[in-house]
Amino acid sequence: MAAERQSTEDYIVEMEGITKKFGEVVALEDVDFRLRRNEVMALAGDNGAGKSTLIKCLAGAHQPTAGTIRINGEEISIENPRQAKDHGIETTFQDLAVAGNLTVTKNIFLGREKVNGPNTILGVLDKGRMRKRAKELLEDLEIGVDVDAKVSNLSGGERQLVSISRTLLSDPKIVIMDEPTSALSVEGAERVLQLIERMQNQGISIILISHNLDYVRRAADRITVLHQGQSAGVIEKDNVEREDIVSRMLGGIPDDEPGEQPADV
Ligand SMILES: Nc1ncnc2c1ncn2[C@@H]1O[C@H](COP(=O)(O)OP(=O)(O)OP(=O)(O)O)[C@@H](O)[C@H]1O
Ligand SMILES: [Mg+2]
Predict the structure, then answer these.
(1) What total number of domains does the chain contain?
(2) Is residue 162 part of a domain?
(3) Which of 30, 148, 185, 210 is most buried, with most CB under 10 Å away?
(4) Could you tell me where the beta strands, DSSP code E, fall in the chain?
(5) Where do transmembrane segments lie in this chain (predicted)?
């Protein structure tokens, strides 16, 4: 069917009919989610709607109970985070995993340290190269954080920026951010939003989970809404009132006639 063929070309990620059960708990039921190439797609929904569960199915942290996942039109299974990375998918999870006692450089390279020599057993960590690469990465992203600083000495916003920049080390195609602005000051969130924009300009396709609808409306091209584990619609950002998103999040009947296009905040 023509629509199928078009979808394969347009979408970098297609998740279809995703169901995820945790024992008796049905966290997701028959959810569809599609990410276009180079767009910022927000995922909105109330607490417990299934947002983190859905992206964990894409990040290889969970296995869906049912459903299919296609990347670039090809059906794949993502059994672990390693396989997600192999498909160019990087994730910052809601519970930030940064090690406070280590430096910025070490956090960026955590788990993928550059090693000199023929193999990882005989080789030694190439600290100089890691530091140089971390510095380049942060400069490219215009993140003014010292690579030698201990992460415990950084602000929450700076930690978030380090955590996001870490995902960019492997030149990903898709970056998933679960609540990157929660617990941040207005200024901290502003820097994260600017970073998202730069990442999009670099050609990355982005999934952004946020409870902050003003940030969502500003950063995203489209918004997928979940309500109690089910799809509650996909909204074009340019065509939406804040109230429409909220009513979908709460399971209300969406307004068929959206009002005026909201001004950019
Ligand atoms: N590992 C798990 N074991 C059992 N139930 C789980 C597990 N993870 C999530 N759930 C349940 O699945 C549902 C969806 O949770 P999820 O974390 O995906 O929601 P969310 O939309 O990310 O919420 P929030 O906005 O609070 O982060 C909830 O009812 C939650 O209790
Ligand atoms: Mg969550």
Answers:
(1) 2
(2) yes
(3) 210
(4) 11-22, 25-36, 40-44, 66-71, 74-76, 89-92, 115-116, 124-125, 174-178, 205-209, 222-227, 230-236
(5) none
